[in-house]
Design brief:
The chain contains 23 helices and no strands. Helices cover 66% and strands 0% of the residues.
């Protein structure tokens, strides 16, 4: 219960309010009574715990004043809420000073002073208070009270700043979880609420780019794979965060994903969007799906080139997939395939050997050699210098154009 709060813990939380005047503290209280639907007698009890006893009378009086100044149009409803706050059954949780002073509001007594405090700042400070309560608290009953308050706050989250608060919460939960199941049991309901909130934020594309890191906390889904598939394939949302979380939370989703993707091949814009988003995932599942898109009979050159460009952003290099493209395709495809293969030193030289050490009759291979010289020149692959030097030394008159083109590229690189 709240009586279990130690003096050391109270002093720790009080330190957060250094620099706040009595009027500012009163506005925090009044703001929560006016604008926080879930603010109840337990909330009022928490507030009274963190204010010096010597300030109770002034703060309560100024809060009543603020209520009269800022009361909503439905004054009767507000009076009903105040009455409920001060007449709740757990009277010990609310200071008598607050109970007696707020009762003046029910009698319609008003004051002349006016105060203002930014509402967002007031709410932010109240949230921080609750976090500080749970840092070292061991009493499960008290922790349950605090976590219930935080859960109420989570239900109203809409702004980017809320993700900063969520990060603080998840950091605390990680620490508590590391202490063992017994320590974490009081936080399970709060964790479930955070997981639901984060998944809904992913599905509705509400996670700001600078807050993506918080999704690392998600280790399992609370809603299953269907909402993700529906959002992607029925509602045509090819969002990179959505795809990343799909493959993270459902590692075996590749088969069902591609099955659904095949049904959408007539929508080239959607397929291209999926291809762009997959490059952000950077794992084996993304690579395999990009390969399937490339090899699909319905993929045109625009899609195929897009797949190779996006594949270039991945850390993984699939030599078996890329070498046939390098050997048999047109220049534009060769350029993309070589750019990917060149990310790895070993595959880079294997690829260059495939391009320049070609066996066959000169009238069959010279067109390929010419194209390959153009490819390394256009992508600026200076590691091909020794191969071009070999090309520049090829004997016989029928290799004159090969020698000239190789020398031209080498001259640009000097």
């Amino acid at each position: 219960t709240k009586k279990d709060l130690s003096e050391q813990q109270v002093e720790k939380i009080k330190s957060l309010f250094k620099g706040y005047s009595d009027s500012e503290l009163a506005e925090i209280l009044a703001d929560n009574i006016l604008n926080t639907e879930e603010f109840d007698n337990l909330s009022l009890g928490l507030f009274s715990k963190i204010i010096d006893a010597g300030k109770h009378s002034v703060v309560a009086s100024l809060a009543t004043d603020a209520l009269n100044e800022h009361f909503s149009e439905d004054r009767e409803k507000l009076q009903g809420k105040v009455k409920k706050l001060i007449s709740a059954s757990e009277k010990d949780s609310v200071s008598e000073v607050y109970r007696n002073t707020l009762s003046l509001f029910l009698e319609d007594i008003s004051y002349e002073k006016k105060f203002y405090l930014d509402r967002d700042s007031a709410q932010a400070n109240y949230r921080l208070i609750l976090i500080s309560f749970i840092l070292d608290e061991k009493n499960k009953s008290w922790l349950n009270t605090i976590t219930q308050e935080i859960i109420k706050i989570l239900e109203g989250f809409t702004k980017q700043a809320d993700f900063v608060y969520l990060k603080l919460l998840t950091d605390i939960l990680k620490e508590k979880k590391a202490q063992g199941p017994q320590q974490f049991s009081a936080f399970e309901q709060l964790e479930n609420k955070i997981i639901v909130f984060l998944e809904n934020a992913v599905l509705t594309q509400q996670v700001p780019d600078d807050s993506i890191y918080i999704l690392d906390y998600l280790k399992a889904s609370s809603i299953g794979i269907e909402p993700y598939l529906k959002r992607i394939f029925t509602e045509n949302v090819a969002d990179k965060v959505l795809l990343k979380m799909l493959f993270k939370l459902f590692p075996e989703a590749s088969a069902v994903f591609f099955e659904e993707l095949e049904k959408k091949y007539s929508d080239m814009e959607f397929i291209h969007g999926i291809s762009r988003s997959l490059k952000e995932i950077n794992n084996t599942a993304a690579l395999e799906i990009l390969k399937k898109i490339y090899n699909s009979d319905t993929s045109n050159n625009y899609i195929k080139i897009g797949v190779l460009k996006n594949m270039r952003e991945l850390d993984l290099v699939d030599k078996e997939f890329l070498m046939p493209i390098l050997e048999k395709s047109d220049i534009i495809f060769k350029k993309e395939a070589l750019s990917i293969l060149s990310k790895d030193a070993k595959t880079k030289h294997e690829a260059l050997s495939k391009l320049f050490y070609i066996k066959g009759r000169w009238w069959k291979i010279n067109k390929m050699l010419m194209d390959n010289i153009i490819v390394v020149g256009e992508i600026g692959l200076k590691d091909a210098k020794e191969y071009l030097q070999d090309m520049a030394k090829r004997p016989f008159f029928w290799n004159k154009s090969i020698r000239r083109k190789a020398e031209e590229v080498l001259a640009r690189w000097r």
